[in-house]
Design brief:
single chain; alpha/beta; Rossmann fold; 5-stranded parallel β-sheet; 3-stranded antiparallel β-sheet; 36% helix
């Protein structure tokens, strides 16, 4: 178990360090006519009329009617988080740079070199959810949404508490709350 956590801890610590060096993100206005609310880096969970509504790193509420069974990851950090919280069997596609755990080698490659993704491959996979991270731009998120896909954006955490919240939120998002909670406790 500890050998599986070492790469995850390394990636998570790298995300924290890079968060301090990251360029500011572009604000994306919510789809409502109301003035935009303050955007926080940490995602929050709230119940909506649908079974689950989660506020992502861009301040958008992502609503899911059911737990996603077909997930595409657009960043190595997102891929590792998905697998670490127990959602590995739900992941059907990953970016070209995801290489851990070993099982990701068998997943569909959606590209990502030089920021170029194959939107055709992503849509052909028919995902219930696409998970993006701060390596992805708000414009890429919008393109995927315009294609009719649900996209959850993970912002880089600025503290360990935000990192733990991200792990728990992805666990909730994927129906793997117990595994995510145990992971957070172990960290």
């Amino acid at each position: 178990m500890k050998t599986r956590l070492i790469p995850l801890i390394t990636i998570l610590l790298t995300m924290l360090i890079l968060a301090g060096c990251a360029a500011p993100t572009v604000a994306v206005e919510p789809p409502t006519a109301e003035p935009p609310a303050a955007v926080t880096l940490a995602p929050t969970v709230e119940q909506t009329a649908a079974p689950l509504g989660l506020t992502d790193g861009l301040g958008r509420i992502v609503t899911l009617a059911v737990i996603p069974q077909r997930i595409v990851s657009m960043a190595p950090s997102a891929t590792e988080i998905l697998f670490s919280v127990g959602a590995g069997e739900q992941v059907i596609g990953r970016d070209s740079f995801s290489n851990y755990p070993e099982e990701v080698a068998n997943l569909a490659d959606i590209g990502g070199s030089m920021g170029t993704y194959s939107y055709e491959t992503i849509t052909r996979l028919n995902p219930d959810l696409v998970v993006a991270a701060e390596i992805n731009t708000p414009e890429q998120v919008k393109t995927l949404e315009d294609l009719g896909l649900n996209v959850y954006y993970i912002a880089n955490p600025a503290s360990l508490e935000e990192l733990y919240l991200i792990l728990e939120t992805i666990g909730t998002l994927t129906g793997n709350e117990p595994t995510a909670s145990e992971l957070v406790k172990s960290l």
